[in-house]
Amino acid sequence: MLTIRSATPDDVEQIAHVHVDSWRTTYPGIVPGEYLAALSIPDRVTAWREGIASGIAVHVAQLNGEIVGFISGGPIREPIGIYDGELYAVYLLQQAQGQGIGRALLQGLAGWLLGQGLKSMAVWVLEQNPAKHFYMRTGAERLVSKSIEIGGAILSEAAYGWPDLRSLVKDSWRNSIGLTSTQFPNRRRHPPTSHRPN
Ligand SMILES: CC(C)(COP(=O)(O)OP(=O)(O)OC[C@H]1O[C@@H](n2cnc3c(N)ncnc32)[C@H](O)[C@@H]1OP(=O)(O)O)[C@@H](O)C(=O)NCCC(=O)NCCS
């Protein structure tokens, strides 16, 4: 059974584990290896503890009791046109990918942002990350691009955006505004890594 719920301070260790693990399976060949090797779970624990306390949305996906993914978002941090909300991060363990969990987390975040009075959502993604296809598949349009430095490498990243958050929640499995906890049967629709390079 899959549960999508708001994170609590007790979840920060597992969120940090998912975060570091997912970076290390997603970004080899994109982000310098030394940078990935140096990622620190204690640093992530601190950052997520602060994130949860700050009032941004942090939602976790729990599969049969284990946290396998998370999403965070809130008001946009850097202006992009009319966009007022932002998806800050979404990461799943590799073995949990490709089962609809990312879409469920996205819909939950969209509902939360609508509940905050926000209307749209943007996200920044590295050009080489196939996750951009996930964003396009869920209705996002490409907005702008820029360079970013990560671990000494200059990389290109693009912003994608959903101009109307209602389009994300309208086909949602449930009304997730004010999300606290939602359960639904898990489903596997395609092999977890079939469309990914790693
Ligand atoms: C990106 C991510 C959150 C997507 O979550 P997911 O659970 O794997 O995606 P879903 O199963 O919900 O897929 C939803 C739709 O997007 C499509 N999709 C998902 N990832 C895709 C990809 N890499 N390429 C092409 N299509 C993709 C699915 O096929 C599905 O389409 P459908 O509705 O027609 O069946 C997840 O794969 C992940 O954590 N990736 C590694 C971390 C990462 O890159 N995070 C983003 C950083 S910006």
Notes on the protein architecture:
This protein is an alpha+beta fold and 198 residues long. It has one domain: Aminopeptidase. It is built from six helices and eight strands; from the N terminus they run E-H-H-H-E-E-E-H-E-H-E-E-H-E. An eight-stranded mixed beta sheet has the order 6-7-5-4-3-2-1-8. The chain binds coenzyme A. The site of coenzyme A has 22 residues, from helix 1, strand 4, helix 4 and helix 5.
Q: Overall 3D geometry?
A: globular
CA gyration radius, whole angstroms:
16 Å
The helicity comes to 25-40%
Oligomer state equals single chain
User: Class, according to the CATH hierarchy?
Assistant: Alpha Beta
The CATH architecture classification is 3-Layer(aba) Sandwich
Topology:
Layout: E1 2-6, H1 12-26, H2 33-37, H3 41-54, E2 57-63, E3 66-80, E4 83-92, H4 101-115, E5 121-126, H5 131-137, E6 141-150, E7 153-162, H6 166-169, E8 181-184
Coenzyme A is lined by residues 22, 26, 90-92, 97-103, 125, 129-131, 133-134, 137, 189, 195-196.
Main traits of this protein?
198 residues; alpha+beta; Aminopeptidase; 8-stranded mixed β-sheet; 6 helices; globular; disordered C terminus; binds coenzyme A
